Amino acid sequence: MLEIHVAVAKVAHHGSGESGDTLETVERPGGGFSFVLVDGQGTGRGAKTLSNLVATRAISLLKDGARDGAVARAVHDYLYTYRMGQAAATLNILSVDFQTGRILVSRNNPAPFFVIRPQGLRIYNEPSTPIGLNPMVKPIISELPVEPYTYVVIFTDGLLRAGERFGADLELVNHLSAWPAAEGRNPEELTEELLQRAVDLDQGEPSDDMSVVTLAVLPAEQPGTARRLYTSVPYEGPARPAPRPDDEE
Amino acid sequence: MLEIHVAVAKVAHHGSGESGDTLETVERPGGGFSFVLVDGQGTGRGAKTLSNLVATRAISLLKDGARDGAVARAVHDYLYTYRMGQAAATLNILSVDFQTGRILVSRNNPAPFFVIRPQGLRIYNEPSTPIGLNPMVKPIISELPVEPYTYVVIFTDGLLRAGERFGADLELVNHLSAWPAAEGRNPEELTEELLQRAVDLDQGEPSDDMSVVTLAVLPAEQPGTARRLYTSVPYEGPARPAPRPDDEE
């Protein structure tokens, strides 16, 4: 019996309260789940609106049972049509499909993703373009078996560019190569380490939105069929005054 | 600075691999997030399909920026129209709206929900009907301020009925009254305690699907704007053989 764990952390670039990246997760109607990670071009409210639109469309299609490759294509066509080739976004879909027992990574993102197994690290960096700018864009789709001690790491490009301003480099490959996959550590540890390193390289002031998603397939610690989800979100107070309590709901 | 934490746990009723309850969470496009919890009438695959359809519709509308009350009404109308008043589901929407700084609980569910604060427990049990069976059903909507040491507990009715077969009772009110809200403990603790108690009362074999969602508003442990999400899902192997690798994607 295995258990699949996913740990996500997201920070906004310094000076902006809100990350322009959008991450959503849904249950797949046929069994399993998907994570959708979108980085909208630009920063601030415009980027957030864009990434929200793209992520919304993607999760609606996934919830309708559409296959991941069709979702990425349809979402591209939607963005390309309605923004007339003027707006770009990166799109990653990370799915575990319980019907086929496969992990699927759909990638419209120049940034690579990584898979760590006890036998070593593999970089998936086949050339891939963001959605929205050119007609008929397709995702690069990679399939992996659901096997214990497999870690899949995806992220938005803000992570790769951490430290650039200061001539420093995240040395992601070195760092991930050193991850002891066979020990079956919690993916939260890996996600937090990566993000912390990136924020440190930017001297505590991230120059871009950064999101990291780490999936791990691990032996189940205890028998049982409970699904669990935990989220924490910083809260800075209302953006505008509360409406009158007698407002129509 | 505050932080909002949400802990969810879901178990399937004994003998069914899959819970008929569906829980989804989305970021609200105006800021904040929503949790949608649906319990479809019946058990097994039929209940799961129903709860998936209802939850899908709800999250699509929420992602479009629709207000919670309109979402609950529209989702009811959808179910009532297309299942011709023959299918029922309970629907809870738990939202934190960062624009207004309010917690909103929208309830189409005979089961109550609970709010624990340092000054005591409050039960929200105004009569409320499931969606799908009668025309023009409306949700009961409750608004709460985002204040530290507030816990909101919602669940599906499987939890309330735990132990019924054996003449035992969860004694939910006693249990929740004893929760030390002012200590600011992690809501995961409360969620796991409730679920564990319920499963124990059913002697390890839950007689129904059970889902518990606990939201807590707590002082932020460290400054920073990182959002975090963690999920774990049991995996029992593929439901059917993998497709040929050259299948069109």
Written overview of the protein:
The structure is a homodimer of 249-residue chains. The first copy, chain A, is an alpha+beta fold and 249 residues long. Chain A is 24% helix and 33% strand. Chain A is built from 5 helices and 11 strands; from the N terminus they run βββααββββββαααββ. Chain A has helices spanning 44-63, 68-82, 157-160, 172-177, 187-201; strands at 2-11, 21-27, 32-40, 89-97, 102-108, 113-117, 120-124, 140-145, 150-155, 210-219, 227-235. Chain A has a 5-stranded antiparallel beta sheet. The first copy, chain A, has a 5-stranded antiparallel beta sheet with strand order 2-3-4-5-8, covered by helices on one side. In chain A, helix 1 (44-63) crosses helix 2. Chain A is globular, with a radius of gyration of 18 Å. The N and C termini of chain A lie far apart (46 Å).
Compact description:
2 copies of one chain form a homodimer. Chain A is an alpha+beta fold. Helix content of chain A is 24%, strand content 33%.
Give the tags.
5-stranded antiparallel beta sheet, 24% helix, 249 residues, globular, 33% strand, alpha+beta, 11 strands, homodimer
